Amino acid sequence: MQYSTGTLALTNGSAAVTGTGTAWVGGVRAGWLLLVPGEGPLLIQSVASDTALTLARPYQGSTRSGVVYNALATRGEMTTFLTQLQTILTAMQGTIDGAGAGKFADGTVAIPGLRFTADEDTGMRRTAANALALVTGGADRLNVTNAGAVLTGLLTGTAVTQSATDTTAGRLMKVGDFGLGVAGAPPAITLNSATAQGLFQYSAGDANNPSAGAGGMVLVQRHATTFILQTAHRANDFQEFTRFSQDNGTTWSAWSRTYSQRSILGTVSQSSGVPTGAVIERGSNANGEYVRFADGTQICRTVAQTIDVATTAGSLFRGFGTSVNWPAAFSAVPLVTHVPLDSATMWGGSQLSATATSVGLRLVNPTSVTGAQGWSLGIGRWF
Q1: Long-range CB contacts (< 8 A, 24+ apart) of 11-14?
Q2: pLDDT for 150
């Protein structure tokens, strides 16, 4: 490296050198050698401007001007250059061995190790041994370790269920799907199509409603691959019914009502001999008290009657009351017994006076009695 533009002037005993037509600031450096005709090498100590520089020691030759020259880089200058070059090469090697080889610094949540020029707080960082985090906006969003992954924020897209009844394998289920975890109403379905496990609602108009006139909720459970159990609850009174399918919902059994504390007592009913109401019905009216059971059994007791037991029957006396209605009608003549209320020696007579709808009190006593009281008990069926 050298520089020789322009001429210079030297003054005996002075270290100052003046240039003419020179541009030394950009072309000459301290440590270079200044060569002029008839003189030994002169060492440049500093460059003050394009036309002024200073020698390392005062010039000892004759004062001269308009002198041509050559300024040459010395070994010391080359050493500096080589040192700087080595620094650059070392940095380049670091890049080659690091980012160039796919290796990056750990980084921080504010400046991830792998980031983007236009968005430096977004990228990826190493949080610990065998752990990394995806960062957006200066915050960790997904942390991955050997133990698994932790997502901060909501997951959307096709990785999650696309509807409240989406059964696609491998998808994550959202809160509320299949009626789970939701505070509001569960998904609406038709009963025959409800084959996936979950909690759903059905309408009063569903053709397969277990109890006409009211909608409700149905819990669907599965066993193995083809057995399905549905448990339905009416919305207005929470009556419970169950049915099942053994062929994956192609055909269904009839609904069967489930009885509980809520439904044991109530109005009994039947359809073609199959109970459809409560288990036990108990009631009373002006004619007495009755109990009906879901299997068809009925027990009735009339109100107390007062009769005279004064008709001679051999060595005994008997009395016949007027016919009164049973408190609830039987489907046929029941088994009847008459119960006296105020005599240890009196007993009930035959059931000849009984019909399916009425009965007359019959009492028998060894002696004649006026104003005896008793009631009639009938056991039979209501259907």
Answers
A1: 11/59, 11/63, 12/59, 12/60, 12/61, 12/62, 12/63, 13/58, 13/59, 13/60, 14/58, 14/59
A2: 92
Compute the CA torsion angle 67, 70, 76, 81 (nearest 10 deg). Answer: 130
Residues of the chain with pLDDT under 70: 75-83
Q: Residue 317: which of 279, 365, 276, 359 has the closest Cα?
A: 365
Question: Order of strands across the sheet with 358-365?
Answer: 311-313, 316-325, 358-365, 347-348
Give residue 211's pLDDT.
85
> In the prediction, which pLDDT does 77 show?
61
pLDDT of residue 239: 85
Of 346, 210, 104, 65, the C-alpha closest to 202 is: 210
Give the model's pLDDT for residue 348.
92
DSSP state of 383: -
For the chain, count helices (H), then strands (E). Answer: 2, 30
**What is the pLDDT, as a whole number, of residue 367?**
95
Which among 247, 197, 245, 248 is positioned nearest to 218, based on CA atoms? 197
DSSP state, residue 204? T
- In the chain, the domains with their CATH numbers are 2-72 (2.40.30), 114-151 (no CATH), 177-258 (no CATH), 282-381 (2.60.40.3940)
Q: Supply the pLDDT for residue 238.
A: 73
Q: Look at residue 277 in the predicted model and tell me its pLDDT.
A: 86
